[in-house]
Amino acid sequence: MELRRARSDEYAAIGQLTVAAYDPFLLGPEDFYRARLADTATRDAEAEVWVAAEADGSVLGAVTVCPQGSPWREIAHEGEGEFRMLAVAPAAQGRGVGRALTGLVIERARDDGEGSIVLSSLDLMSTAHRLYESLGFVRAPERDWRPQPDVSLLVYTLEL
Question: How far apart are CA 68 and CA 150, in angstroms?
Answer without folding.
Answer: 28
